[in-house]
């Protein structure tokens, strides 16, 4: 298969010399050391490495949930290194979608209403919301379940709803943290197939995973160790 990154030359993420130091009282943890990374539009990047090596920290910085202690981060043409918390959250809402291991769906809302949430926060009209939600229900093959509540769905179906919710605002970057961690292998395979298809349709994905099989589905595999990039493998498409 052709590497999507070759089709899309636009650079989405430029990280330069990113360091993250957590300080708690007298204790400092140097979680990321001088990470430099470029991610291009259309790529599927997997981040792996042992527990505590900094994967979630890196994903939080990429997703503007947290800021680096030092270093530079450019998202498309926006320098997001030194923004206030409010500015960061505005850019996050516009440009970034998240999928977490635990789905994080709201139990008392229907599938439709869960997917609609990001657009409601943006104050979109109900017509725009309906069109966008219907489109994304189709994208993840969940249109026949739109009136269901999350507890009436399998884990794999819940994760597909979470993917639709992450994508409904048309983010530039989809960040995925252990998407199959709470799923059996059949549902895990279905969710991964869904992510692969979305990537083939042009969605840029950065995914943290412990599962070697799934990281091989990405075009690039970045292995962290003690907060540093230990190795980078390119073109490993399954
Ligand atoms: N909020 C925090 N305060 C202090 N230290 C933290 C905080 N978050 C993470 N750390 C530390 O930073 C280092 C990297 O943690 P991180 O959660 O990024 O690793 P990880 O690779 O995602 O681990 P896992 O695979 O177990 O989820 C660890 O030593 C961790 O203890």
From TrEMBL:
GO terms for cellular component: plasma membrane; transmembrane transporter complex. Residues 13-237 form the ABC transporter domain. Keywords: ATP-binding, Nucleotide-binding, Transport. The keyword ATP-binding applies. It holds the Pfam family ABC_tran. GO terms for molecular function: ATP binding; ATP hydrolysis activity; transmembrane transporter activity. The keyword DNA-binding does not apply. Belongs to the ABC transporter superfamily. Macrolide exporter (TC 3.A.1.122) family. InterPro entries: AAA+_ATPase, ABC_transporter-like_ATP-bd, ABC_transporter-like_CS, ABC_transpr_LolD-like, MacB-like_ATP-bd, P-loop_NTPase. It comes from Parashewanella spongiae. This is ABC transporter ATP-binding protein. CDD domains: ABC_MJ0796_LolCDE_FtsE (cd03255).
């Amino acid at each position: 298969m052709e590497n999507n990154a070759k089709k899309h030359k636009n650079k989405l993420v430029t990280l330069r010399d990113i360091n993250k130091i957590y300080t708690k009282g007298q204790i400092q943890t140097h979680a990321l050391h001088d990470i430099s990374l470029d991610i291009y539009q259309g790529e599927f990047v997997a981040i792996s490495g042992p527990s505590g090596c900094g994967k979630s920290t890196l994903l939080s910085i990429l997703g503007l949930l947290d800021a680096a202690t030092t270093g530079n981060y450019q998202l498309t043409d926006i320098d997001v290194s030194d923004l206030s918390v409010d500015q960061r959250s505005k850019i996050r809402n516009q440009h970034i979608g998240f999928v977490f291991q635990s789905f994080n769906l709201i139990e008392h809302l229907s599938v439709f209403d869960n997917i609609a949430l990001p657009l409601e926060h943006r104050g979109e009209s109900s017509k725009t919301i309906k069109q966008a939600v219907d489109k994304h229900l189709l994208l993840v093959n969940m249109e026949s379940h739109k009136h269901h509540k999350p507890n009436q769905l399998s884990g794999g179906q819940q994760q597909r709803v979470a993917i639709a919710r992450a994508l409904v605002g048309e983010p530039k970057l989809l960040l995925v943290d252990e998407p199959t961690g709470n799923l059996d292998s059949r549902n895990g395979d279905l969710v991964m197939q869904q992510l692969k298809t979305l990537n083939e349709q042009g969605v840029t994905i950065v995914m943290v995973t412990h599962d070697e099989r799934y990281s091989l589905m990405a075009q690039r595999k970045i292995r962290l160790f003690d907060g540093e990039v230990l190795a980078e493998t390119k073109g490993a498409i399954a």
